[in-house]
Amino acid sequence: MESSLKNVLVVSFGFLLLFTAFGGLQNLQSSLYREEGLGVAALSTIYGAVLVSSMFLPSVLIKKLGCKWSIVISMCCYVAFSLGNFYASWYTLIPTSIMLGLGAAPLWSAHCTYLTIMGNTHAEEAGKIGKNVVNQYFGIFFLIFQSSGVWGNLISSLVFGQKPTQGSGVLAVLLVATFLQPIKDVQEKSKGEEKSSSFWSTLLSTFKLLRDKRLCLLILLPVYSGFQQAFLSGDYTRSYVTCALGIQFVGYVMISFSATNALCSVLYGKISQYTGRIALYMLGTGIHVSCVIALLLWKPHPHQLAMFFVFSGLWGMADAVWQTQNNALYGVLFEKNKEAAFANYRLWEAVGFVIAFGYSTFLCIYVKLYILLGVLSLTMVAYGIVEYLESKNLAQPLAMEETKPAEEGEIQTKL
């Protein structure tokens, strides 16, 4: 097995083990602790901490510790949250939620940076197109990672009333610490330039990248990603599944989401080189618009059991687009500033989560669905502008190359 693929599998199975413990707990928070509001408060605290962490921590940790050890340390924060759920109270869940949130941004930024560097390095060695390899690596990762939702929710459903064990989280830490190969970015600045980059410059690199108008336009992609994930895990599970079927069905319905998400992730990673990312974004948009309209019209009833699984499965098909394509897009467009770009992604995704969980307790479900439609529409308009700008940038060098032979021919004619 080639070295790059081995490393992709190591980090993927590390996330599988980690989120098998965490995923089931996350999906049950709003339902399991609904009476005191502790579940929603814990979720809001997590993404509030992610928001703060995304501003400052990822670039600093990745620069100082490298991708591998940033991942390992951040995983330990997730293990702490799993332990907090064994003795769930305001005094255990809120502090461990803060810990998890602080570790989440560096974890995801380091992992995305790692896969992007690994994909580009392998593409250069094999003579392939970098964005295609990066897309495939993200597809493989999300295939394995999203299957954690299957196992985590299966455990939480079969042993409902107990908490999924934190042991798999400990195994994740050990797996990554032992077998993941540290890497260096071949496109890194020279050592002299690296030394001139001060601590404060690195700390503020997340904000400095906002000078790029493409990033400003793409902010809505992670914001919408946060909105739609929060809706599924917080609102769909509570307002549709729990109300109509009971809390015991939440895990099974989320298995449908995770299974379709996992399968579609690897599929999209493979076919993106043939279809292009625009077609996949259109697919994801079409599925989510259809689901939102259907949910507005649907009156859930326990006898319509299959429909609860159909909606979560379709939601997983669309979410696979956002997860694979968003991360690959950020890695391709901001290749020279990967750490800051992925930190920005986590920052704005956390903003989406925090806003969605913030209004979760006092807005009616149909209002939340209209908000999703509005944000998705604005997101696709902004994304379309970025694609237009990129097509213009790619067309300019080609036009210059075409004019050169013509100019040379004119010179030769004159001579």
Automatic annotation (TrEMBL):
Signal peptide: none annotated. CDD domains: MFS_unc93A_like. It is a multi-pass membrane protein. InterPro entries: Ion_channel_UNC-93, MFS_trans_sf, UNC-93_regulatory. GO terms for cellular component: membrane. It is found in: Membrane. The keyword Transmembrane applies. Its main location: membrane. SUPFAM superfamilies: MFS general substrate transporter. The chain crosses the membrane at residues 39-62, 69-88, 137-160, 215-232, 244-268, 280-298, 343-363, 369-389. Keywords: Glycoprotein, Membrane, Transmembrane, Transmembrane helix. Belongs to the unc-93 family. This is Protein unc-93 homolog A.
